[in-house]
Every structure is written in C-alpha cells, then in structure tokens.
Design goal:
There is one protein chain. This protein is mostly helical. It has helices spanning 24-44, 55-85, 90-119, 122-129, 138-146, 154-164, 168-181, 198-204, 210-226, 228-249, 256-262, 266-278, 281-294, 317-331, 333-344, 381-399, 412-433, 436-474, 479-494, 512-516, 522-541, 544-555, 561-566, 575-600, and strands at 184-186, 194-196, 299-300, 348-349, 361-363, 372-374, 498-499. β5 (361-363) and β6 form a beta hairpin. The longest helix is centred in the last third of the chain and has 39 residues, at 436-474.
Amino acid sequence: MSTQLEPPKVRWDLSTLFSGPDDPKITASWARLREQADAFAAKYRGQIDSTELTPSLLASALRDIESLSQELSKPLNFASLMFATDAADPKVGAFLQSQRERATELSVKLLFFELELQACPQDVIDRALADPSLSNYIHYVQTARLFSPFRLSEKEEVVLEEMANTGSRAWERFFDETTANHVYKLHLVGEDPKEVSQQEVLNLLRHPDRATRQSAADAFTAGLAEMNRFLVFNYNNLMQESAVEGRLRGLEYPEQSRHLSNELDKETVDLVVALCRQNYGLVERFYNVKREILGLTELTHIDRYAPLFEAEEEISFEDARAVILDAFGGFSTTLRDRAAEFFDKGWIDAEPRPGKQGGAFCSYVTPDTHPYVFMSYLNKMDGVMTLAHELGHGVHASLSRKQTYFNFHGTLPLAELASTFGEMLTFEKLVEKADLKDQLALFADKIEGAFATIFRQAAMFRFEQRCHEARRTSGELSAEQFGDLWQEELQAMFGASVKLEDQHRQWWSYVSHFVSVPFYVYAYSFGELLVFSLYQMAKAEGPSFAGKYVALLELAGSLTPDQLMETVGVDLHSREFWLGGFRALEALVTEFEGLWKQFNA
C-alpha cells in the first residue's frame, strides 16, 4: 500500500460571479434588478392574458423576464456555493438567507407574468407561438402552461412565495446546517475515541476491515439517533406542507408536481420503477457472489460496500484528472476539452475540510458564466468515479451554454444522462489498464454503483411514496414507522443476499433529497438505465455516435425529454428500450461472475 496521500488543496474560484459577500456589485445588482422588475410589471401587467396578445409583445416580455431571471440567479448561486463549502459559518448562512429574501422580493413582483401566461386562451398562445420570433421560447411557454390547472391566484402565490423563506426553505437550510456540522463519535478497536464528520464515517463503511466498518456503523447510527427528534419532526413537517400545498393546488398525488417538472407522464415513471422492482433478482445474484469472495457466512448492512480485497492503491487528484480526461477524449475531443476547463480554470472544489457539506454536485449557474463542480476528493477509486460523474454534468452544463437561460437547464431525469455516461467512459478506461484482480474490484464497484443508482433509488422512491401517503392518511409518522417503511423497501431490493439489521432502520434520516427535492430520486434510476441502453447504442454505432451525443447535450432543455431522446433514436415509452438497460446491467453481472471464476480457478 502506498504512503497516504494528502487530500488535494483544490478550491474553486467564484470571482466570475462576485469577489465575496461584501462585493458592492451584489448590492448594485439587486438595486438594478428592483428597478427592472418594477418597469417590467408596469409594462406588461394585464397585457399577457389578453385576446389582443401579439407575438411581438410576448417575445419582448419573454426576453425581458429571461434576462431578469438570469441576473437574479447569480447572487443566489454565489451564496449557495459559498454555503456548500462553509455551512458551519453563521455569517455565510445569514448571507444565503439574505439573498433568498431579496430574490423573493423580486419574484413576487414578477409572479403575475407566468400566471397570465398560464391563463391566456390556448388559441391565442398557439397563434403567437407560430410566429418565428418566438421559436426560442416554444418549450418554455408549453412547459409553463403544464402547471396551468394547478396555479392559484396571484395573491395566494405571493403569500406562498413570501412564506417559503421561513417555511420549507428554512427547514431545508436547518437540515443542511445540522447534518453538515454534527459530530460523530468514532471508537475504532485499539484506538482512542475521536470526533469525525459524517463524510468520514460514511467513507469508513467502505473500509476493508469489518470491525472498522462496524465501528463506523455504530458511530453513524448513534449520531443520527442524537438528531432523531429533529429529523423525524422536520420530515413530517415538510411532508405536511407538501400535502397542504398539493390540496390547495388540486394535485392528485404527492409526486405529481415532480412529474410535471420533469415533463414525464406517470405511466412512464411507473413503468421504469416497476421494471426496477421486477429485476431485483440481479441484486441478490451479485451479492451472493460477493459474499463468497469476502468469505463471509452472511452479509449485513455494513458489508454492502466493502471492498473485495485489501485497500487499493490511492489515486491522487492529478492521476484522477489524467484518467478522466483520457477516457472522455477517447470518445470525443469536445468532451475532453470541456472537462479540462474545470481543472485549468478553478471550477472545482475538491478539498475536504470541516464545515463543508457532504455529497457532490455540479452547479450550472448561468449560460453567460460557467458551471462549478463540488465534491470532497479522498484519493480513492470511488472518488475518481464521483469526479467523472460530476464532470459529466459539467460538460453537459458547459455545452448547454449555447442556449439562452430559459432553455439552459434540462429536466432532472435527463440531467443524469451525461454524468452517468461520463462514469461509463471512465470505468472502461480503468478496466483496460487493470489486471484481473483489479478488474474484479472495478466491476464490483461499477455494479454496486449502478445498483445504488437504479435499484436503491427506485426503492427510495417507493419509501417516499409510502411516507407521503401515510402522512396524508394517518398523521405524523413516528421514528419506528419511518424505520419500518425504510427496512421493507430497501430489504426487498436485496432479497436474501444481504440482511439489513436494526441499525439500518435510522439511515433514511440523513438522505437530503427527501428534504430538499422530494421525489428527485427516481431521476437517478431513469437516467442510469437510459444511459446503459444508450451506451450500448454508442458502442454499436461507433465514432459517428459521438457527434450525435454532443449535439444532444447542446440542446440542453430546449425540448421535452421525449423530443430530445428522439434525436438519438430513443423512445422513452418503449418497454423494450428500458429492458435493454437491464440486459446491459445483467451482462456486467455475468462478466463479473466470469472474472471471479477465472480468478478463483
């Protein structure tokens, strides 16, 4: 094993946005935006919901509000990025809150526009959208009008927006601050107890020593138990807020607003989730082999991500960079060049440090600036794959800058397309260079990652559905009830191959997606399966597919998911297409089984 490497001192440079919280440009920006918002309201209020609406007037209004929205998002993005790297500093939290409150002040001035756009007669909208001057805004207008049946009056919408900063947004921030700053008490065998962060504890669940994994699980469970009353209350509270808002808007079921935002129909989502559940047998098949490799009589919740062999060589951040750029470049020089910018221009924050939030993400920011990647790189193989995943997002965001702001962001399910594709490219490059033992480990990591993304997220979606349903029909859920639902859905995924013991009953409570983006999780299942099928198409077609893929990413959110995937010959409603993803996944499991037989011969 190599000498332990120091984590990278890689921090992002946010100066493209602002120099700091006290940058006078922030105050000047808000003052300018307030004037523009007032002028916009004076010019367009009462003009959009009108039979006299002309294409030129609508096009002018859309250009104006798009520009306003883009500039309004910059201080918000800046504050959020600062908070992600320093959630422990109360001043940073206060700065984030102040930016949200200023954004709300402007948003309520502009709410009338979308409400009028949704209320305008369909024939008037159709006539306007037929005009070439509105070609860039067709998708935006049509998407906005999907919510027409569920919008309230302007006064009611203003109240909901005003209250959100002390309602759901405040509870989300409280969750982030509480979990990011909570100290876990770790007691490893033969060592003195020490205090560690959540990320450090979670990383130890991948340690080769089983006693260390058990100690990490003990510390993680005890730490969550210390926050239990807050976490249980918070989730109950947010679910109830969702139920009240859904009732006021006339939504038929809890996840309906997510489906509308994702521009996916319930039937397609239900099809993908049902196919995930029907293929849980692949999970059991893999973990039965893993148990044999590890030489254990039983796998439990502490063994899911155990490495197959003793700790691997560490991989420096610079080596990870080389591997990823080589992998991306082997498919497309465009992908490589766009990814390289993140390293060369300070668009990545990869240094682990106290107060930094857990997890990883890519923030698109705006098309006239550039995206940022966030993670904590710990010199491990899974960190290489995480970096490849987020750089896939980053390349997508970078290519999306061809679009204007309203077409810049795609829907969540397709947002995972480029990230998962980036992982696949990197995985194959690593396998190329690996010996048999390392290939076994790489396949195990890849399969477990795919299972966590496809099957686990589908199980988590079912957990969310059942929690929201129970909250609406039976009132507040207890910690025990949450634990029961969590165990039932997650255990179903593993079958008899892994036993999720009592500690695992509390592990639902740290999942931030349940709090900040309800029902987001199925987007991962959707995106990963889509890429498994798409990747097979890419390999079958050869080099010509790269151009189609880049063109698809450049379209960003300018079309519906169905229309976007049609550009590469994919029908999202096709059961056979989705089954192709499972066949590709099964082929990975089969290859893994073959590698083990060869290694064990």
